[in-house]
TrEMBL record:
Pfam families: Aminotran_3. PANTHER family: GLUTAMATE-1-SEMIALDEHYDE 2,1-AMINOMUTASE, GLUTAMATE-1-SEMIALDEHYDE 2,1-AMINOMUTASE 1, CHLOROPLASTIC-RELATED. Its cofactor is pyridoxal 5'-phosphate. The keyword DNA repair does not apply. Belongs to the class-III pyridoxal-phosphate-dependent aminotransferase family. PROSITE patterns: AA_TRANSFER_CLASS_3. InterPro entries: Aminotrans_3, Aminotrans_3_PPA_site, PyrdxlP-dep_Trfase, PyrdxlP-dep_Trfase_major, PyrdxlP-dep_Trfase_small. This is Aminotransferase. It comes from the Bacteria. It comes from Amycolatopsis lurida NRRL 2430. SUPFAM superfamilies: PLP-dependent transferases. Keywords: Aminotransferase, Antibiotic biosynthesis, Pyridoxal phosphate, Transferase. GO terms for biological process: antibiotic biosynthetic process.
Amino acid sequence: MALKSSRVAFERTRRSVGGGVGSGLRAAMRPHPLFVREARGAHVWDLDGDRYVDYVMAWGPLVLGHSDPRVLSAVSATATKMQVVGTGHALEYLAAEAVLEAVPHGERLLWSNTGTEAVQVALRLARAATGRRRVLKFAKSYHGWHDTVHAGMAETDGDQPAAPGGRGQSSSVLDDLVIARFNDVRLARQILIEAVERDIAAVLIDPVMSNAGVETPSPEFLSTLRTLCDRHGVVLIFDEVIAGFRIARGGAAEKYGVLPDLSVFGKAMTGGFTQSAVVGRAELIDQVTAGVVHAGTFNANPVALAAVEATMRALADPVVYQTLEEISSEFDTVVGGILGSVPDGGSFNRVGSLLQYVPPGANTGLHGTGGLWTTILEGMLHHGFLFMPSGKVFLSTAHTTSDIEATAGALERLLRRT
Ligand SMILES: Cc1ncc(COP(=O)(O)O)c(C=O)c1O
């Protein structure tokens, strides 16, 4: 793959778009972002017409692969009738019913556009319900780019102040965060016992640490958080922006059998379009009729909700999760097997169709693994395989055994040369 047109396109984009990328994290693509002209199933085609097997899947959303015909036909049928109307339409309840049907604790929902936004809404609901201010979250977890949650990634024992996640962020909101360690039951207990004194309104957790190593919760971690939240009047929020509708139809709640008060969903829910939701207990959600502000011009827009309804109906077929599990397990065994066959090759952590490359003995951080993964990222791109800079791998129902065998073959040849 020559990547020639992508290189030229990136240079041109940099002249009109800050950093040359639509989202800052994409700047980590090496040697530069691939410029795509078409995307179907498990594949994308670049501006030169070269085809790639895509393991990025738009950074998570595409559980059914690119351009799923069911989603496209629902979107086309709606888009020719209306686009955004700023008032009620039937897809508001049709899509909501399809989402609530899948989520074990789904009594009611609120629509918003991105995961970042939905997290903010969930926190506002928790603060309104408890009359408290602070949020317990876990080191290295990512909950969107907003100042209120985008904190430095350092591990703390809950007493050290959080650092801003980047320049230009407000430091005054950081005191709202209490940062603990994922899977540290003892520390969570120690902090939550003092929830009233510490003014803690919510526990915000990505139950599988999607952006920091794909670490699964220990058997007692989520259930202990549930018990402690109940005991100390704290709202338990699962951030399932990546995990939701990907690791299971009912997300982390279904997979681990622990029901939060609220869950935040985004990516996979909309099959490639833009919409997110806060889902959970009616009593919490209904606070929007009692002074909690939740707004957005593009919330619940018909085109996105047509995509949500079609995607959620497609995901209701149990074959989807069976297929995802089979193909993801095959990827782990076959491609992971190639890594395992070379010294210091590393391995994958896997929860369902979400995988994370882990270098030997390493504790992966957020959005970047370096070392051998950088070699793999760049080397595989030249042979027609698109991976993420962070080492995360997303599978879809559109990936096939032949994609995986081709990936393994190319990886083996690459590593033999390295
Ligand atoms: C766990 C998690 N929460 C929230 C977000 C923010 O979602 P968005 O990028 O749609 O704002 C992300 C994005 O990757 C995420 O992975």
